[in-house]
Amino acid sequence: MSNTQVNKRKIFNDPVYGFVSIPDEQIFDIIEHPVFQRLRRIKQLGLAHLVYPGALHTRFHHSLGAMHLMTMAISELRLKGHDISKEEQLAAEAAMLLHDVGHGPYSHALEHSIVNHVSHEQISIWFMQQLNNEFDGSLQMALDIFEDRYKKHFLHKLITSQFDMDRLDYLKRDSFFTGVSEGTINYERLLNMLQISGDEPVIEYKGIYSVEKFITARRIMYWQVYLHKTVLVAEYMAIHLLKRAKWLTMNGIDTKAATPAMQFFLENDIHKKHFLEDSNVLASFALLDDYDIYTSLKIWMQHPDKILSHLSRALVNRRLFRIEMQNEPFEQTRINNIREATKKKYKLTDDETDYFVFFEKTANYTYHPGADNINILFKDGSVKEITEVSDQLNINLLSKPTTKYFLCYPKDILLSGRY
Question: CA of 286: how far to CAs of 34, 299, 366, in Å?
Fold first, then answer.
């Protein structure tokens, strides 16, 4: 490496916030690290671009944006008299920057098929521990804040809670790139109203309407983007495709994955203990990104296994299955009829039919009252939870879980006279 001094006081141009400064030289070094640069190669919204063509932004974008909002939040709290040291600020910014570093490509599909229910939050912690070792322990406070071990609990809540910098950024950013304007929030107003009461972040009463808009925008983004029915069918097709690739590989059938990293996770049944026992597992995970998955799909389009090739062609060429969504579970008779029609048309066994016909449910708490509330601070110093003081009845409705059931199957299955 050249001995030339690198200028680490960089400014980047964010399409959402404008010009944003990197706050510290160590933050620059974290951003430059290969573990973080990998996030450039992972789309923030997975397969949502199949519905919203503009949704091609990355987890790299989002992580930088969330860090910027953390800087703004701490500046606001300092202006209001809260003692937050420079060291604490940098630790909170580093923790915010790294909060999603453990995400894999098409993350939720990956967690259900390539690794065995190892969450991206846990993998983020392992990456942060690795970086802390490489940076001679200088990220220990960031780790403590991230894992809620630090004395100032509110710093952790600014990273992960029902009102945190993560949600503020992804709602603003995802609505921008998808073009779903109903998801837009006034992040500046929300940050200006930020306060601390009893070691918890709260919003001053003047900002209550912005909080209501924030909760409503989150509901709209979930059902219109994150849980959009076409996004759901694409994600579940990816889950079933990866499960098929893994099943074939584990049963001695060569799937010829695009990269050694991808092949490693197909060949091995990886659980949490494997990450803890063998550092090579995390190193292999650090090499996985969207390109490993997508290039593998292009290869598998020609695979002799008809299930793997059919699902790969369907995703690459956007020939997605039909999805029906409703508020009640589907009748078993209807599911059985679709299964039999699919089994017959594609000449499948019962087990193979599971890859082509699947029924699931999805639930979303737009706002979930409990230990982790969004609280409103009044002038007299009292604090009340948002649903107690909101004069919009829909806020109370939003606090109840919404469950929807969906059924997916190939579009060419003829049923009751319908294609």
Answer: 8, 22, 32
Encoding tokens for residue 97?
Answer: 């920057």
Residue 128 three-state SS: helix
Identity at 213, one-letter amino acid code? K
* CA angle centred on 308, ends 303 and 309, rounded to 5°: 50
Q: What is the CB neighbour count within 10 angstroms for residue 124? A: 18
Q: Which token pair is 369?
A: 């009252």
Write out the chain's pLDDT in tens, 419 residues. 444 567 778 899 999 999 999 989 999 999 999 999 999 999 999 999 999 999 999 999 999 999 999 999 999 999 999 999 999 999 999 999 999 999 999 877 777 778 888 889 999 999 999 999 999 999 999 999 999 999 999 999 999 999 999 999 999 999 999 999 999 999 999 999 999 999 999 999 999 999 999 998 998 999 999 999 999 999 999 999 999 999 999 999 999 899 999 999 999 999 999 999 999 999 999 999 999 999 999 999 999 999 999 999 999 999 999 999 999 999 999 999 999 999 999 999 999 999 999 999 998 877 877 768 899 999 999 999 998 888 775 666 666 778 999 999 999 997 654 43
- Give Dmax (Cα) for the chain: 73
- Identify residue 137 by its one-letter amino acid code: G
Determine how many CB atoms are found less than 10 A away from the CB of residue 182.
12
Around Cβ 302, how many Cβ atoms within 10 Å? 11
* pTM of the predicted protein model: 0.94
CATH class as words, domain 11-228: mainly alpha
**Kind of pairing between the strands at 11-14 and 18-21:** antiparallel
Q: Where are the domains of the chain?
A: 11-228
Rg (CA), the chain: 23
Answer yes or no: are the C-beta atoms of 174 and 105 closer than 8 Å.
no
Give the Cα separation of 253 and 223 in Å (integer).
39
Q: Which two tokens stand for residue 83?
A: 């003692």
Number of helices followed by number of strands (H, E) in the chain: 21, 9
| Other C-beta atoms lying within 10 Å of the C-beta of residue 412 | 13
The amino acid at 11: I
CA distances from 145 to 64, 327, 336, 389 (A): 18, 40, 50, 30
Length of the chain as a residue count:
419
